[in-house]
Write the structure tokens for this entry.
Amino acid sequence: MDNIVHRKIRVGISACAYGAKTRYNRKGWDLVSEFGRDMSNFIWCPVCPEVMSGMGTPRTQIRIQGDSGRDVIEGRAKVITRNGVDVTADILSASNVCMDILKKSEIDAFIYMDGSPTCGVERTSLKNNKVGKPPGVFGAMLLNEDIFLIPALSLASPVRRWDYKRRLYAYVWAKNQEIKTKDELFKFWHNVKFLCQELDEKESRIMGKKIANSEFSPELAQELKIFVTALMKKPSTLEKIKNRLWKHYVYIKRKQGTEIEEIMAPQENRNMHHIAMELEALEKYAFTHDILFGSMPARNK
């Protein structure tokens, strides 16, 4: 059971975050370029429900008149333009078309643009004085699917970008593993347990004890896969990432008797870019020397 994802990961994305000028004011941001060379590890599928609703760009801003996008889907709220025009039917139709496209593309993840009444998951307004509660219409549809969700604006942070990337690799890897024996179950858990413990130590310890004390069964294997894939969607914190970085580095130093030039002592000050550089250097060294880097248990081929 190797730890390599043997295909390109398929990622849907709000078109405005892909660089397309599809926002209401004819603006867009090329946030995926932040991935650098890693961009080639993904197949991209940009969509924009508002453009596909027929509103085009530039266009009048829209908002949810009611509680949230979920209520729009269930018929308890509307989507209206700033001029008061009801565009609910068009937005629902376009959102369903976009979801059909994502399903046909067999995406593993979606990068959403918060602050949108359609694609927003945590916010549906760019203003502090929010109109309507999240999620947006398309955001609600995304939450109903088993999709790894990534907020687009998080990609601007090198450490958060690394965190989402490593968890996405682990998510896809875990989801595609077949666990048919107790030995395969142990190998699967050994590969991901360090990252699981970083993300939720209490629940991971409970799962670890259950694996150790139970007989193998397909039901247990399925429970473990569901536990791991669900946990991979949970962001880590900077402090946890830095703590694990140093722990893994100390282990590698002891095992290999070598030092990695880019990695600084824990008490030394460094910015986010340098922390990301340290993580990538340790990641590269571990994979080159066939050492399990517990903070990033899976990688692209």
